[in-house]
Amino acid sequence: MLKGKTVLLAVTGSIAAYKIAYLASALKKLDADVHVLMTENATNFINPITFETLTGNKCLVDTFDRNFEFSVEHVSLAKKADVVMIAPASANVIGKIAHGIADDMLTTTIMACRCRKIVSPAMNTNMYENPIVQDNLKILEKYGYEVIAPAEGYLACGDTGAGKMPEPQLLLEYILREISCEKDMKGLKVLVTAGPTQEPIDPVRFITNHSTGKMGYAIAEVCMRRGAEVTLVSGPTAVQKPEFVNFVPVTTAKEMFEEVTSRADEQDIIIKAAAVADYRPKNVSSEKVKKKDGELSMEMERTDDILAYLGSHRRQGQFLCGFSMETENVLENSREKLKKKNLDMIAANSLKTEGAGFGGDTNVITIITEDKEVSLELMTKEEAASKLLDQILASRT
After folding, report:
1. Is residue 162 part of a domain?
2. C-alpha separations of 136 from 22, 106, 140, 202, 234 in Å
C-alpha cells in the first residue's frame, strides 16, 4: 500500500516512545521506507537499535554522526520524505519547532522538510494544558502542521487527564490518510450506507440479515483516503468505524431512509452498500405478535426502498451506485435493478461465489453500467472498493 513512500518518524523524550516501535513495524509491513529520528532524551526510553532492526535504516540521533554515506543527511532525508510524524512530541521539542530552533538532527531535519508534518503531543496533563504549550501548538497549526489531540486517561506520572499519546493504530491512520492514495476525490461529498438493519419484533427479538458492513466500511475508508468528504450511515455492526468520516449510526430501515434522504441533496456520490431488511413487522407491539402451535405469526410490511427513492429524486449531476446480492441470474437481475431504480451503476455479486458475500474479507463483484460490465477477480474488499471508485470516477467524466 505504501510502496515508494518515505515516512519520517521523529521520536522525542517521553515514556510513550516505546509505542512508536509498533508504528514503525506496521508501516514497514505496508512497504513504506521508514526512517526514525530521535532526540538524545528519547534514547533513554527506547534503544535506537530497536528502530534500526524494525526499519532496516540507521536511526539518526547525532547531527555530526559520520557513520553513513557522505551527504547532508538531514537535508537528504527531508527531500525524500512524503510525511513526517513527530510522536511522541514533548513540550520541549514543540516549543523549539514553533520558534524555529534547530539544534539537533531531529529539529534540523523537520525544519528542512516541505512535506506534511503531523504532531502528536504526549506529556503530563499540567504541561499539556500550560498556556505556553497551547500557544506553541497554535503556532504550529498556523504554519500548516497537523496537531493530533492527545487521549485522556491514566498517565505514567500517576495523574489522570489529557496528555496520553494515542495508540499506534490511530497514528497509522493519520499517515495513511495523508499518503496512501492520490487525492483524486478531493472536493467531492460522498455518502455511503453499510451494514444490516434490525427490525424489532418485540422488546427482545428482531429481523435482520447476515451483512457485516465490511464492504461499505471499506468503501467509506478508501473514499476518505482519496480526499472525499465522507458520510457513513451504518446499521449495527462489529466493524471498527473508519476514522475521519462523519459516522451516523442507525438501527432500523426507517432510520436509515430518513438519514440518507435528509442528506442526499448535498452529496455528489451516493453508494448504497447496506443490506437493508426488506420487511418489518407491521404495527409492532407485544400484542400484535401471535403464537399459533408454537410458531410466531405477525403481519409484515415492506421497508422503504432507499435506492428507488434516490433514483426518482436525484439532483442533476449526482451519481448513484447500488449493490445487488443475488443467488441466481446475477447479471440479469442486477441490470433490471439498475434500470428500474434509475441508477448509474450497480455492483453485483453472488452468494454462491466462493470468496464473495457476507462476512468475509474478500469479494468478487461485477460492476455494471448501462453500456458496460467490468468483472473483478477475487480481491480484498478494500481493493474491490478502490476498483469500484475508479469506475465511478471514470463514469462521471
Report:
1. yes
2. 28, 18, 6, 55, 38
Known catalytic residue: 157? Answer: yes
Which CATH number does the domain housing residue 69 bear?
A: 3.40.50.1950
Q: Count the Cβ atoms, other than its own, within 10 Å of residue 382.
A: 19
Spot the catalytic one: 59, 113, 157, 181. 157
pLDDT in tens, 110-159: 999 999 999 999 999 999 999 999 999 999 999 999 999 999 877 777 77
User: Residue 315, exposed/middle/buried by CB under 10 A (0-12, 13-18, 19+)?
Assistant: exposed
Query: Domain containing 343 — which CATH number?
Result: 3.40.50.10300
What does the pLDDT look like over 193-227, one tens digit per residue?
A: 999 999 998 888 899 988 999 999 999 999 999 99
CB contact set of 306 (below 8 Å; sequence gap of 6+): 193, 253, 256, 257, 260, 261, 272, 274, 276
Predicted TM-score of the model (pTM): 0.90
